[in-house]
Amino acid sequence: MMNHRMGQRGQVAVEYILLTVTVVAVALLVRNQISQRQVLAQFVQAPWAKLSGVIENGVLGDPAKTKAQHPNLLYRHASLQGTQLR
User: Fold this and answer.
1) Domain map of the chain by residue range?
2) Alpha-carbon separation of residue 51 from 6, 12, 14, 61, 65 (angstroms)
């Protein structure tokens, strides 16, 4: 009876080790696939292109295309003399 219990403990330990090795191997495989396919880079680069347009030019879109729409490049008319009051 005592040997049966000791054998069960050893079997449980071996099963836990095998499960741990399997989970670690799957996690590494998934991480390598994500790294090779650059999944996270695609999630970041596409929105960043539009956000960088907002940061640089104040307009949502590609910075090179929205540069002409920057508020500082809009035609503004200013007079140093001002208008005369009547």
Assistant:
1) 1-37, 40-86
2) 62, 53, 52, 7, 13
58 neighbors 70 (Cβ within 8 angstroms): yes
Cβ contacts of 71 within 8 Å, gap of 6 or more: 58
pLDDT digits (tens, 9 = 90+) for 35-56: 888 887 877 777 887 788 888 8
Rounded-to-integer distance, Cα 82 and Cα 86, Å: 13
pTM: 0.47
CA–CA distance, 70 with 2 (Å, rounded to integer): 82
